[in-house]
Amino acid sequence: MSTGIILNPANSKRGYFLKFSAGVLLVCCLGCSGGVDEVKLAPVSGTVTMDGKPLADIVVIFSPEKGNPSSGRTDASGNYSLSYKEHAKGALLGSHRVTIIKAEAVIPKNDDDSGIAETLPIETFRGENDGVAAIKLPQGTFKKDPIPERYNTKSELKKEVVDGKNKFDFDLTSK
Q1: Three-state secondary-structure class, residue 6
Q2: Nearest to residue 33, comparing CAs of 25, 41, 23?
Q3: CA Rg value for the chain
Q4: pLDDT tens digits, residue range 38-78?
Q5: Interatomic CA distance for residues 92 and 40, integer angstroms
């Protein structure tokens, strides 16, 4: 008489399936734990003014040499704070090119005046920062940006984000 346990073939398959499933789940959990947790972010905030006056509803974009950009919009007093992807606060550590824009969308009006804006055709393409998708809108979609090109399309602004709090104020000149 044997004291060992005799495995039923059906239970054996079930045991292997459970062990396999647990292994796959473990690998998936370890592989999916990436994202924002893998990058080192630091809080970035400040104020944007032009000719000494606060600029409201301005978008400030910090683009690192490698990785995803962070952005923030100014309030009525010109204050901003940056957010990274997935709603994480801050920007990647390191050197950044700073772009400051005011892009007011021109919403086309329908002939029937139903209050529903028409959909604009949008073309996407591979961006420069690690393949981040970028969007091209048709010409004439936005009003002319009142901020000089040297702060946006031909930005001369560079900032170094370091560990800890970063406060960067931008006093732009219109001339």
Answers
A1: coil
A2: 25
A3: 26
A4: 789 999 999 999 999 999 999 999 999 999 999 999 999 99
A5: 6
Q: Structure pTM?
A: 0.60
Side chain identity at residue 21, one-letter code = S
Contacts (Cβ under 8 Å, ≥6 apart) of 17? none
Q: Which of 87, 95, 120 is nearest to 106 (CA)?
A: 120
Break the chain into its structural domains and give their ranges.
38-105+143-172
Q: How many whole angstroms separate alpha carbon 172 and alpha carbon 54? A: 10
**pLDDT at position 24:** 43
**Euclidean distance between CA atoms 42 and 82, whole angstroms:** 9
Q: How many CB atoms lie within 10 A of CB 115?
A: 7
Name the E strands within 38-165: 41-42, 44-50, 53-54, 59-64, 70-73, 79-81, 91-92, 94-101, 123-126, 133-136, 157-161
Q: Does domain 38-105+143-172 have CATH number 1.10.1660.10?
A: no
- Asked if residues 71 and 58 have their Cβ atoms less than 8 Å apart, the reply is no
